[in-house]
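Researcher: Structure prediction, please.
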Amino acid sequence: MIYKLPQQKLLRWIALFLVGTFLQFLFYIPTPVLSQNSNSCSNITIPLTSEEQTYARAAWQYFVKNYQPATGFTNSTGGYPSGTLWDMGNYLMALNAARWLNLTDQTDFDSRLNKFLTTLNSLKLFEDALPNKVYNAATAQMVDYGNNPLERGIGWSALDVGRILAAFDVIRTCHPQYNDWLKGIIAKWQVARSLKDGQLFGATVLSDNKTLLVQEGRLGYEEYGARGYQLWGFSAPKAIALEPFKLVEINGVQIPVDSRDFQSTNANNYVVSESYILDGIEFGLQGELADFAARVLDVQKRRFDTTGQLTAVTEDNIDQAPYFLYNTVYANGTNWATITDANQPYPQFRSLSTKAAFGWRYLFPDNAYAQKVFDAVKDLRSPDDSGYYAGIYEESKQPNKALTGNTNGLILEILYYKARGNHPLIASTSASVSTSKPSENASPTIPANQANPNVTTPIAIPANQANPNVITPIATSKPTEVAVAPIPPVDSPQPSSNLKLNRSLTPIERRYAEAAWRYFQANYHSKSGLIDDRSDFKGATLWGLGDYLAALHAARSLDTITPKEFDQRTRHLLGALTKLPLFAGELPSRSYDTRSLQPIDYGGNPVPEGNGWSALDLGRMLAALYNLKSCHPEYTAAVDKIVLDWSYLRVVREGILSSATVTKEQDGRYLTRVNPETRLGYEEYAARAFQLWGFNLERSAVGGEYQTASVEGLKVPIQRHRTDTNSKNQYTVSNPFVLYALEFGLDPKMRSLFEPIFQAQAERYRRTGTLTASATTLIDRKPYNVHSTITGEGKSWVALGDDGQPVPKGRLVSTAVAFAYNALLPDNKYSQQLQEGTTDLYNPLIGFYEGFYETTGKTAVGFTSSTNSMILQSLLYNVTNRQPLIRPITTMKSLWWQTVTKGNSGRGLPNSAIQQIKLTSDSSGSYWVSDGENTHLVTGTK
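Model: Predicted structure follows.
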């Protein structure tokens, strides 16, 4: 059968290119890289003249002399080891310009940038969210503006974040080898906390030590900062619009002025040159911004015409108190105001700005006035070759001898802009400015990898879980991180697992394995030993921890991690499992905070008494623990001790798996209810896991009669026919069936369920050209979990939330399921097509994305342990001659079986020390099976 390539694949690649990545917490030790030249960046169409080369060399000397080798940072002002994120952005722009202007060679460039990014990646963040407003350039410590160390910091600046994001974009464009490193850094930052109501928000610390979010940016800088955000997929529609502004007549020119002034907002609405210059050289002046820039230049010329005073005003450091001033065209109702940030006037220190003069000269090369102001400052260099001075005082006519990275960095940027033929440094299509007034209801587009700062993101409710009661997140203080001790070293840890590989990974497969393992590096809590179920939430379920243990085994078997790392992480996880508070003293709760190990609900709210247990999650963990014993027997004693702490009296009842939920009654009482599990595929998977440990679960294991629905002409199972419960399965997805197949193999009964599920998806693709890998996946917005069903709530191919409500345009092609189908059915043309559509859908620093949307091809930017664990398991399955990943234990003499043999434990252990299933083989392959299993498909009426 011939399959046509889906159009959405092309769309997905385009979308992936535009997506910004981003996660809240990232543990990443970068590997130094060597930059690769980009033709567009090295394309010098108008080489600098000999005079311009002198200007460039002088400006670069500032950075040579103010370099801090211990951090890779540079001083913001000459000899003063301090710097903001804006100053860091200046340096990156200067470094890039210096490289292409041949002021430094490739070796020096790489050395400087590697050191810079290494330090930047390890910076302590304000409230673990975003870089502090200022750091000591020599030590990288958080400091205040007086360069005094502060443990907490003083807040963040959204405008500074926008500046460095623009610089990051230039670096990744001109030096693409650094792209992944930059994405990894951004992924550590909680950028969404600086976005609110479509605007940019900074943070400041009040006198009572509370954090206050304050809107940042006024006309000019606000749009510039927002465009930096937009380059990485963070949208702030109100910030990028020009409104609100008014026109104020100054020297006969109508000047655009932000309507939000100091008196009404406690923030200055200054009009200066630099924001327009930056916009021009980096993004290219367009539309109303081009008109505004021309007006701002023209009004300065008219002041000169009227007064004879050369005028090029913008903010600048000065060489005396108060050390930093805004020289403005207009600010807070005053023309030509020179003020501090607190709106204190210093007209005696108004100056002609060197960087502003350079900027106007090269933005408007044919403007006679721009040439005039440029001529006044072009030789304003320090005699000791330390760079350009900041400017000339109007009143005294003396040089303002402040030496800054801002002045010299902007000069280098400007000269590079000229050398490129006045071509903007950032592609004009990368970010755009809306010049129309935004809707009053406009709201920011929270980047897919960021949590909305105003909403507590609920934990990803595991795909196997029934919809819990509606949960309202509550504000809580940051939990105390607990330090969990790993279990003691085991006797004779093995250098590899007992699993025999049929072949080694190919180089491409190894790249995929390393990418998937990155998730478990990025989301590892080094104190507790736990892994977050999803990258944007500090919580874990037992299912997610089972995913982690399975991923550990796969990564070690594939030689993705060393024996030492495997042993350390495994012992730490086992240590954490011994410390988890048990619900009712019986079994692990449904979810835990990965920092405090305390029970939480699916909204992340503390529930000290727990919120019940999931038999399905317990099954996932039991499968992973069994395989740990089988393939790494040195951990057997520790594993058995953990599982013998649990009571199984209520989870295994009359051959059926049951789970506990907790509900709050109207009178305030909390009641526990235990009900049979009915989730199709998940129940069968968990039952198999319990059977490994000797439990009799013949009524939950695969078998019996199943009701079906017709989907694409195939009889797709929708639920088990049963009389013991009124609960119904809501949907059919691929996840549990492919996991079952990878770990337990496809016994005849499971195969009869598995095949129509796969074939229906292949037939849909044949019929519509829509790639289909139906699964439960994470998305970055409500309802957070989406079930892209094969059939659900009586309909085919519907996307549902946990509440059973449709999610319009929410269907995803699951990366994990695509990998699994290709591993299980490598010769099938449709599974091959799925693999081709998703193999490179990953961030090499954070792991594989959840998938991409069927309708748009856009990447679903989210990262989970389940997806990355399944990919690692699929890769392992490929190299084990496609044998079930769970291997049998050869001895029954461990503590578990000894305790079962003794009987009367009071813990609901199996009645006999016999595994209920065995590994067998026939012409169809190898699989685990128990005697007496029968599966009959009953044609449904739906």
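Model: The longest strand covers residues 656-664.
Researcher: Thanks, that helps.
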